[in-house]
Amino acid sequence: MKQNGLEPNNFTFPFLAKACAKLSNLKFSQIIHTNVLKSPFRSDVFVQTAMLDMYVKCDRLADAYVLFERIPMRDVACWNVMLMGFAQLGFLDKVLRLFHEMRFARILPDTITVMGLTQASLETKNLALVKAIHAFGIQIGIDGDVSMANTWISAYSKCDDLSSAMAVFNGIEIGARTVVSWNSMIAGYSNLEKFLHALNFYKWMLCDGYRPDISTIVSLLSSCIQPDKLLQGVLIHCHGIQMGCDSDIFVVNALISMYSRCGDILSSRFLFDGMSNRTCVSWTAMISGYADKGDLNEALRLFHAMEAAGEKPDLVTVLSLVSGCSQTGALELGKWIHNYAFSNG
């Protein structure tokens, strides 16, 4: 562009910043920022906000905050970028401080502001704070926004307050509900192991003409964790096959975990052996299945195979083996696993 004698404008820079943010490319981000500082648009709030977002997406929150402090005329988008950056990293104190500064500056918060506040509050599962933020959202008139309602449903569910989540869900107009609305409720019941409630919501979802997605199936499978739920788990598996999502890696991992926890280790192994790409979650689910069954030899063999495949075991993997050792009284193996964990951080 420059070779042809053309100069970037206040629309070009934000597009370049967005591309760098998507790639998390810090080197090119800094080059673009340098060019912005040399351009007539260095004080343009639209361009500055794009630079801010670029640094946040590149995980350079400190650099982003330095830039934020230097922006003289900040609009709500500028505040939101910084607030969401802190929220995504769980810095609740910084999010709340920034929000108070924003209010002091007489900037009117919007949906994104409240989403950031809600997301940050979930790091501590602070139900009182979630309710306060919800009340504030109603006060400023954004409670009719379905994306905001979905956020509150998810927030209440994660705080184990399903009655409040249900109240928000019922407050969404029937035609305005999205798959995310349904999934948030199903996930909430599943996380509390309330399988029948989750299943009833799933049936209700189907009756209302909504098409489930991968998240729906994974949430339902995660609630089937007892041998008496095996049949229901198989039925959900069949639904996944009908939907064509049974080969999705998240669904397969959930199926491996479901079958092993319901006592059907052979079905778990069949799915595991059929995977072309395995993640740490895949290996851990299978290792955990054998460890829970008391077959420590196979669990340990898979553990070594996991390492040989270049997949690093995580804390959950190690704890699965430790649990198996505890159940079977394998003291020497337990000591070896402890030494392994200590040596490998």
UniProtKB/TrEMBL annotation:
Q: Which InterPro entries match?
A: PPR_At4g14850-like_plant, PPR_rpt, TPR-like_helical_dom_sf
Among the GO biological process terms of this entry, one is: RNA modification
Flavoprotein recorded as keyword: no
Q: Does the keyword Repeat apply?
A: yes
- Select a single GO molecular function from the record's annotations and give it: RNA binding
Q: Where are the PPR repeats?
A: 75-109, 178-212, 279-313
Q: Which UniProt keywords apply?
A: Repeat
Name of one Pfam family that matches = PPR_2
Query: NCBIfam families attached here?
Result: PPR
Tell me the protein's name: Pentatricopeptide repeat-containing protein
